[in-house]
Design brief:
DUF4485 domain-containing protein, single chain, mainly alpha, 6 helices
Amino acid sequence: MNAESQTKPKIVFNRVKQQLCKAETRMADRRTAKIWLQYLKMLGILRKFLRAERTGNWHLHLMAMKEMLPFLAASDHDLYTKSVYIFIYSKCKFFLYTILVSMTTFVVVNTSCNEAEDFGQDFLPILSLSKS
């Protein structure tokens, strides 16, 4: 497969995407079209959420939940909004912690003790956690 045959579908896809965006902006000021566009956006979020659930993709799941938040709040589902917000916050905090621990493990393995102490006192407790 040559480079020209690979770029042609991308060019066609970009043209179609541009045409859809133009049509969407033209219709954005009409009331009925605005409702339908919002409905299609909600269906897109639902499809993303279902794909995440079926495949077990946590990052896609969190992204879909985050996109659902404004719709939950607007439809007066206060408990769902609060629960989703707390859920997303706790999972993102957990992912950041695991990334930080994996990075500190890499730093501990690949640096000497003197270089690790240069990171500062706030960083040292995490380094001691990753050693055990």
